[in-house]
Amino acid sequence: MKAAAGLLDLPADRAARRLALSFLDDAAAAHARLEQGADDEALHDFRVALRRLRSTVRAYDEHLRGSVDRKDRRRLAGLADATGHARDLEVHAAWVSKRIDGMPGHQRPGAERSLGDLRAEKEKVDEGVRREVAKDFGKLRWRLSRQLRYYRVEVDVDQPEGGPRLSAVLARLIAGAADRLERRLDDVEDIGDQDEAHRARIAAKRLRYLIEPFAAELEGAAEVVRRLKRLQDALGEMHDADVLLARIPDPDDGKNVDHADGGRDHDDDAAADGDRDEHRAGIRALREALEEERASRFASVEMDWLHGAGGDFFAAVHAVAEAARTRGEPDREIERKYLLKRMPAIRHLPVRIQELDQGYLPGERLAERIRRVREGGEVHFYRTVKLGRGISRTEVEEETTERIFRKMWPLTRGKRVRKRRYKVDDGGFTWEIDRFRDRRLVLAEVELPSEDADPPIPRWLQREMVREVTDEGEFANINLAK
Prior knowledge:
Elements: H1 12-36, H2 42-59, H3 70-100, H4 108-149, H5 166-187, H6 194-211, H7 221-247, H8 254-260, H9 270-304, H10 311-325, E1 331-340, E2 351-360, E3 368-375, E4 378-387, E5 392-400, H11 402-408, E6 416-426, E7 429-436, E8 442-447, H12 459-462, E9 465-468, H13 477-480
Antiparallel strand pairs: 1-5, 1-8, 1-9, 2-3, 2-6, 3-4, 4-5, 6-7, 7-8
């Protein structure tokens, strides 16, 4: 995932190709290990890299146009399907092997026969996967590497340079994938809805693959990925149990038992009856364990995700999408400012009091402010740049250190403001009453969620109100500074 660092700020066409190339490189590294044949995890890593590559190609289809054609997609799909079948058999064999360890002796023969069938089939499938990978992957990798790395771009002079950033595209994709997952989960009503649950698992995987490369860069993304992994695991284990149930014959179905015994003819004697009974006992034990596991996994999914239980999760996903959408955008400060006759009577109200010392650095095109804020026993220091004027302005602020503040403070001589700020919460808004310490002036400010918001003036403030001065430049702090 290191290759994803910094991609969010690139044009989507370029970033999507870099992301796809990183997964193609992961697949190539796993493929090299797979060819050596000594690494048990190589096939798993190859499969995961392929699936991430396919998911990336699918998600960013619009931005990869001309780089991955239909034939390449079919080849990727064929390789992924082949490795997926091998993975299923590996999981099923591991599950049966684990259950055999705890079985009484009379149940083991039937279970061990099922395990042997699974391992024999897996060996054949593995060999087929190796042949298919050896035949197709080398050429496919060469083609995709070249097509993803070199591409043509159509430029519209009326559009932003370079097109939309990946962060904006990712935000839209996350929101859409989250909505699809929510709909898929709504389709799962009871344990019989195994096909619907499997589709929900695929939707969860695709959403996870979208977010996971950027989990370290977007606030809340790591926790969303963790919860998606838990959902994917629960749905996957339920699906695995359901598929394996279909593979293991019903011990009470004479036709299936004969098939499981390899179609052999049994003499009608006690030994043959005993063999059949032991075989049925083992098969029955496996099926009962599978049914129990399937029910257990469904219960956990139902409790945490179904019937509206996942509401807080989807709110968190949309918060991650919003973090991607607004990435790199400066904060907007939307506020109204009022001139007051005097300090209002606020002693009866819950008030936070701050002492502010702020100064403005010299500059013709950009006005930077440094500020010291004392509140209670704490002191914080900030550097701020504001652009624009009126009700809505761009604000970029970061906390700094006392050492930097002290070095810069002398540069603000002649452009300083000292005031005491009283912060009062009222009616869902926070009102800030600024009483200046170096002149007879009291101003009130209220920060708004949008430009068209119209907060009611609190009763305790109405009698002291003179007028709104939001657009009057003489009341801007930079112009009041001296």
